[in-house]
Amino acid sequence: MKKKIMVHALTSCYGCQLRLAALEEIEEIAENFEIVYFPMISSKELEGDADIAFVEGSVSTEKDLVELKKIRKNAKILVAMGTCAAFGGVQSWDERDYEKLYRDVYGEEKIKFAGRKAEPLSKHVKVDYILPGCPPEEWEIKYFLACFLIGSWPEVIDYPVCQECRSKGNPCLLLEKGEMCLGPVTRGGCSARCPSYGIPCSGCRGSLPFGVACFDSLARIFLEKGYSREEIRKKMRIFFSGDPELEEKLEKVLSKR
Amino acid sequence: MKDEIRIVRPIIVDHIARIEGKAGIEVRMKSDGTVDAKVNVIEGPRFFESIVKGKNVNDAVSVFSRICSFCSAAHKITAVLCAEKALGIEVSEQTMKLRELLYLANHIESHTLHLFFLVFPDILGFDSIVEMGKEYPEILSAGMKLKEVSARVQDIIGSRFIHAENVVLGGFSKIPSKDKLERIKRDYEEVEKFAEIATEILMNFEYPEYLDRERVHLAVKPHGDEYTVIGSSMETSRGDEFSPEDYRKFLKEKVVSHSFAKHVSLNGSRFMTGAISRYTLFKNLMVGKGREKAILKPLMLNPRNPFSNNFAQAIEIMYFIERSKKLAEELAEGIKDERPTSLEKGSGKGTVCTEAPRGTLIYSMRIENGIIRETDIITPTGMFLALMEEDVRIAAEHMWKSGEKNVNKISRKLETLVRAYDPCISCSVHVCKVRK
Asked: Which distant-in-sequence residues (6+ apart) come within 8 Å of A167 by Cβ?
């Protein structure tokens, strides 16, 4: 029997599922799996359970939370697809609470649906796998699907963007050009896409797992290169604000003693 | 009075399938035969304009592309143009041409995805493109090829299809090689024929006449003498012309309780923006095959009917491919390895407008020493939301009054109507700001 997939989006830009839907192999995917729910491209309504749920987006409304809990109940495997689902995404860049942000944008006006401060899925349910990226790389979406197809599981990428960047022979934007490149603490797998274009890594694939993201050492180098404490923290928070170790490690280096 | 507004039967679609983002329809039939209709926008807020406050302008422009994946290059390019205007950064002609080539690829990709993935299954009677592809593999493969080529152009020029990072203040971090630009031209030549399939499919579709009515259109006036998506002023079908700096005099935003996206009005009235508005206002500037096809089918491009928008998108795919070929050829001939002109810590204010796939997009910024102090963004979906909602009401009322009592049938037709507008819910929600 074919494994059943469902694709959900909480609050997001829809880029992760757009990458999935726009894969050249979408027909093959539909042949090998049963796509039971994928509202962005299908009018089919959700019925019953699924083997694998791909969930994009952060939890940003009460409705998102209800939907997420239902997905968890209905799916054997839950994949947090993309950086918003995995780590909160760019919408959690700001540190102000929900009420402050709401007032700044909507003023005193009321909207009948309840919103909340953006959070990653793992704050609320168990996440089985993280498919990182903003958006994820095509190869990795296919790798995840292939693993599930043969009954295996995807390996976690535990090496930094620098590994691929150096092997491509790119000049080092951090050491040679003094740019605020987050490659050393960011999950690899993108073939150093941005540094290969001469653009410093912004960390869009999220921080390295297993506690090996050395935010502290990197922050020290940035300080030496002349960046301010505020600049460093703001830069790292764009995509790493969901990492529980970020603040603690930064504190060691950035606190004014 | 209370009896009159007794609800007979509500139609509630929680989540309209096959659109970008989460929106629903709520229609209530009243006993007097009239109808109350709401397009509920339930997609969560992301407060983009608020979260970039106090942040570095280079980081902010990168984050803005994350507002929406379907129009990510549109947001990136418009944000960069806005920051450059605020900081007084001048860019080269080559930079502007490359940006336009990238922007057009975003249009071709977005229109292709919308028509082939979201609309055609409707017209041909399938739940999704996958089912449609089993019966009509040639349509699926035409859509896939158009998408593939336009996505590759974004990969080459922007560094990535969806969230292009190579577009930076002052130009591009890396200039594409002559070979790559020539490849872009060849790729477009190969897929040109597939663009025509889109117009053929839409020809069999009849627009409901009850939606024919006077509509105000808004679009950005092209910068040169040919139809395109970049320009420095806006025009309306009522004859107004205004510069982006004056947008607040013409466009007003308001919060409505059933939507995280604000509704925008133009001089107090509901209005349209998008492919059909561009075509209506600037069709005389369109040249080549797209134009030839369009002239043959004036009724399919009736500015009074919202369904014309899809045909206008199909025409634009043809036309934008032709224009892209020309741009790629011109660029390939004299491509120079230019470095971005940059002004690191400048200050100033700027407002710009461009045509995103779904219509006019406005960005306004105030920057102090390279840090964002204020941003205001008005997106096309926010602009046409009120008009779309009114059309939903008119359509529901018409069907109900002419004896259609099958709620499922009505809601399917209403969903099709919403899809014709090609709303981008992520865009509309994530970027609304109160004007005090």
From this structure: none
Residues B37 and B386 sit within 8 Å (Cβ to Cβ): no
Distance CA B137, CA B390 (A): 37
Cβ–Cβ gap B433/A198 under 8 Å: no
CB-based contacts of B284, cutoff 8 Å, min separation 6: none
Cβ pair A199, B159 in contact under 8 A: yes
For the sheet containing A75-81, what is the strand order? A33-37, A3-9, A50-56, A75-81, A129-131
Average pLDDT value over all residues in chain B = 91
| Residues of chain A numbered 224-243 and touching chain B (CB < 8 Å) | 231, 234-235, 238
CB contact under 8 A, B259 and A111: yes
Which three-class secondary structure state does DSSP give residue A36?
A: strand
Residue A155 CA to chain centroid, in angstroms? 16
Residues B365, B371, B375, CA angle at the centre, nearest 5°? 25
ipTM: 0.94
| CB < 8 Å from B in window 111-130 of A | 111-113, 115-116, 118
**CA-CA-CA-CA torsion sign (B76, B79, B82, B88):** negative
DSSP state of A202: -
* Cα B276 from Cα A186, distance rounded (Å): 43
351-410 of B, contacting A, C-beta below 8 A = none
Query: In this structure, are residues A88 and A113 in contact, taking their beta carbons and an 8 Å threshold?
Result: no
Contact A204 B163 (CB under 8 A): yes
Residue ranges of B 282-301 with Cβ closer than 8 A to chain A: none
Q: Least CA distance to A39: which residue of chain B?
A: B17
Give the minimum alpha-carbon distance from A151 to chain B in angstroms, rounded to a whole number: 24
Task: Give per-residue pLDDT as tens, B18-34.
Answer: 777 788 888 888 878 78
**Beta partners for residue B251, in sequence order:** B266
Alpha-carbon span A219 to B201, nearest angstrom: 57
The answer to whether B44 contacts A22, with C-beta atoms less than 8 Å apart, is no
What does the pLDDT look like over B389-399, one tens digit per residue? Answer: 999 999 999 99
